[in-house]
Design brief:
The protein is mainly beta. It is built from no helices and 10 strands. The strands form 2 sheets. The chain has a 6-stranded mixed β-sheet, with no helix packed on it. Strands 1-3-8-7 form a 4-stranded antiparallel β-sheet, with no helix packed on it. A hairpin with a 4-residue loop joins strand 5 and strand 6. The protein starts with a strand and ends with a strand.
Length: 119
């Protein structure tokens, strides 16, 4: 099974940038979609961004124009570039993969990385 490991979280001031990386233990080539969720304290989990093998990309309205998702199948990694960070972006960020169009119990998830944005 493919395992995912995030890195790149941390503490940053508002207006700053961070780049999250998700490294896969196996090939991403046949994985239909990869992306990022986040969970802020006291809030529900939120889909931040997703990219499919066909190159389709979607973003949450709250991050459009500030975050960029990308994927490197050759390196089995994908990324979330976060610019102009705001305090409301503070959350634990999780990367995930989806083998098919619909979610499945076997879809891999990362362990989460904390992003904290100070005002």
């Amino acid at each position: 099974q493919v395992q995912l490991v995030e890195s790149g979280g941390g503490l940053v001031q508002a207006g700053g940038s961070l780049r999250l990386t998700c490294a896969a233990s196996g090939s991403l080539f046949s994985m239909f979609a990869t992306g990022w969720y986040r969970r802020a304290p006291g809030k529900q989990r939120e889909l931040v961004a997703e990219i499919t093998t066909g190159g389709s990309i979607s973003y949450a309205d709250a991050v459009k124009g500030r975050f960029t998702i990308s994927r490197d199948n050759a390196e089995n990694m994908f990324y979330l570039q976060m610019n102009n960070l705001k305090p409301e972006d503070t959350a634990v960020y999780y990367c995930y993969g989806r083998w098919g169009i619909s979610a499945h119990a076997n879809d891999p998830w990362g362990q989460g990385t904390q992003v904290t944005v100070s005002s």
